[in-house]
Specification:
This protein is of the alpha+beta class and 623 residues long. Bound molecules: adenosine-5'-diphosphate (ADP) and magnesium ion.
């Protein structure tokens, strides 16, 4: 007897549904895309119990005729493409004709639709593939889909679903992606009778970002744009110094479609090299327009992965547009004291402006400065050159501000005449200064005073020293010393290959590592300048950085990566008490170091305060 049989259509759909319909959020995504393809200018989404109980999507798009409605649910049924030529340049969100068939095979679906020029609407119900009758009914033009009890006949799939909140999180994410790319459409999302978003038509992109995320995020962004050949890039990216611990706030859209692409992610990361810490992520909303035939979206059922004909061009163009803006952005920070009446504002309002621990400590430093404006501890001249490392205790923990002042940072804007601030002139070489909280150095300047972040400044100084040594014309390798006991680390075959491939770069930096046995390498020598850095750990971090990007960095990028890491690790830490001699030395090195207004990761190394600001402030407060 024959053992092989062709599966019936419903089985085929159920299996196919596994690819496109993973969870309730997939239904929302597919339906929203259909509404957009239908030309809707208004779409509302209503969800109950994280979408497991009910998802209703209503649009005012072109609608479907009574005749078309049942066909729409057939597998591979679409109105969007017809020929092979169409497939080569897809303009619509959908084209595979499988979403409705898949959804209707795993849930109870009811659709009501009416075309614009039709006098009545038609409705149809399908229960897990059991199709009902098309019946006339009355309704506004457009289409409404109701999807109930998803996976109710598939306990294995249902079990896989998470809590209501988690599922709702996925739904919100898909809603957000579509809403960001289509700001001409009015869109709303409600859950269990509570409205989460109501986005009006025609908002600009930045306003939508503000509504979908937060006003703070909106305020942290700057716009960049550029056009090269057929490629147009418009993006909202975070100012230098603003960063996140993951890449969740990176959204890439290609001709209105949300995509994920490792080349573009890499370009974002690369653009911010030197502007944020290596393990942090910038915020980026990138909108790319390019000819529909310059890439292929038919790579994956969910259509979030695409294949560019020329990924290198896309990479370099996005990198160039972002980098140009970042390089032209003045990240020196001038603290400006507010002129308006603020002093009786509640503490919490002050604290809401304090974005993180670091800024909190600057505030503490301010307070301390006001309270004890006297020189630091008696100088004891036990000068020794900075070789970094060693922290003497943890930095002061953040503390609430008890004073009645606050300050805002206002210096992130590019200076209008592009006249970047000059380094401060010190009134006296052995300047008045004090170290506060073993982390900041407060220095008197001609115009007022400034607060220096000792770690950030030292990091920049080391970076520049290493860089100039490596880039000097006739520079040999960095001075290194052989380790008495080689430091070993375990590596995979791919990582070993990576070490071999970059052997000359490591050598230039004074690092040699040899194979020590199967799956093990030993660091034999290491730069003298980094004597307090653990060699094996350092090499491990370098390998992780290179392999994580997935793209072979060129020599220059690799050197920058390594310098970044080296200077961060070797710089004096926050929380280290410095002697007067050490502070003198640091300030002297600062005078001799170019570009020391910010650390290699883009954070400022100092914040300036002017006497004028202080005077204004004190007069208003009647002190
Ligand atoms: P695809 O979007 O890939 O064409 P779908 O299964 O998602 O496939 O939808 C099948 C067809 O149903 C679409 O091509 C379209 O003609 C019709 N359709 C689906 N949703 C809507 C809608 N909201 N308004 C009008 N037509 C729709
Ligand atoms: Mg579709």
């Amino acid at each position: 007897m024959a053992k092989i049989a062709v599966l019936d259509n419903n089985m085929v759909n159920m299996i196919a549904a596994g690819e496109v319909i993973e969870r309730p959020a997939s239904v929302v995504k597919e339906m929203l895309e259909n509404s957009i393809d239908a030309g809707a200018s208004k779409i509302s989404v209503y969800v109950e119990e994280g979408g497991q109980k009910l998802i209703t999507i209503t649009d005012n798009g072109c609608g479907m005729s009574a005749e078309d409605i049942p066909t729409a649910f057939a597998p591979h049924a679409t109105s969007k493409i017809r020929t092979v030529e169409d497939l080569a340049a897809i303009r619509s969100m959908g084209f595979r004709g499988e979403a409705l068939a898949s959804i209707a095979s795993v849930a109870q679906v009811r659709v009501v639709s009416r075309e614009r020029d039709s006098i009545s609407a038609a409705s149809l119900s399908i229960d897990c593939g059991q199709i009902g009758e098309v019946t006339p009914c009355s309704s506004d033009y457009g289409t409404t889909f109701e999807v109930r009890n998803i996976f109710y006949k598939l306990p294995a799939r249902r079990k896989f679903l998470r809590t209501v909140n988690t599922e709702m999180g996925y739904i919100t994410e898909h809603f957000t992606r579509i809403a960001l790319a289509h700001n001409s459409i009015e869109m709303s999302l409600s859950h269990n009778k509570r409205q989460l978003f109501h986005l009006t038509a025609g908002q600009n992109t930045l306003e939508r970002i503000g509504e979908l995320f937060s006003r703070d995020i909106e305020d942290s962004l700057m716009m960049v744009s550029g056009q090269e050949k057929d490629l147009n890039v418009r993006a909202f990216i975070s100012r230098p110094g603003v960063s996140k611990i993951n890449n969740k706030l990176q959204y890439i859209f290609l001709n209105g479609r949300y995509i994920r692409d490792k080349f573009i992610s890499h370009a974002i990361k690369e653009a911010y090299r030197g502007f944020i810490e290596p393990n942090k992520f910038p915020i980026a909303f990138i909108f790319i327009q390019m000819p529909f035939d310059a890439y292929d979206v038919n790579v994956h059922p969910t259509k979030t992965e695409i294949r560019f004909d020329n990924p290198n061009f896309v990479h370099s163009q996005i990198l160039a547009v972002m980098r140009e803006k970042l390089m032209g952005t003045n990240v020196e920070i001038n603290a400006s004291l507010p002129v308006r009446e603020v002093d009786r504002s509640p503490l919490d309002e002050i604290l809401s402006r304090v974005q993180d621990d670091r800024e909190q400590r600057v505030t503490d430093a301010m307070e301390s400065f006001f309270k004890h404006n006297k020189p630091a501890s008696q100088p004891h001249f036990d000068f020794k050159p900075f070789t970094g490392g060693g922290s003497s205790g943890a930095p002061a923990s953040p503390r609430r501000v008890s004073g009645s002042y606050r300050f805002e940072q206002s210096g992130f804007e590019p200076s209008k005449d592009l006249d970047l601030p000059q380094p401060q002139q010190y009134s006296d070489k052995t300047a008045d200064y004090l170290q506060v909280h073993d982390t900041y150095i407060v220095v008197q300047t001609e115009q007022g005073f400034e607060i220096i972040d000792q770690h950030a400044l030292h990091e920049r100084i080391i970076y520049e020293q290493l860089y100039s040594r490596i880039c000097a014309e006739e520079a040999g390798p960095l001075q290194s010393q052989r380790l008495l006991i080689p430091e070993t680390l375990d590596v995979t075959a791919a990582e070993a290959e990576l070490i071999e491939a970059n052997r000359d770069v490591f050598k230039q930096l004074g690092i040699t590592a040899e194979q020590f046995g199967p799956g093990t390498y030993a660091v034999q020598s290491f730069p003298t300048m980094l004597k307090d850095v653990n060699p094996a750990q350092f090499l491990r971090d370098v390998i992780d950085v290179i392999s994580e990007s997935g793209i072979k960095p060129d020599r220059e990028k690799l050197v920058h990566h390594i310098l970044d890491m080296a200077s961060c690790k070797a710089a004096i830490k926050a929380g280290k008490k410095l002697s007067a001699g050490e502070i003198d030395h640091l300030l002297e090195e600062r005078r001799q170091t170019p570009r020391c207004g910010r650390c290699p990761h883009g954070r400022p190394t100092s914040i300036q305060f002017t006497l004028k600001d202080l005077e204004k402030q004190f007069k208003r407060t009647g002190f």
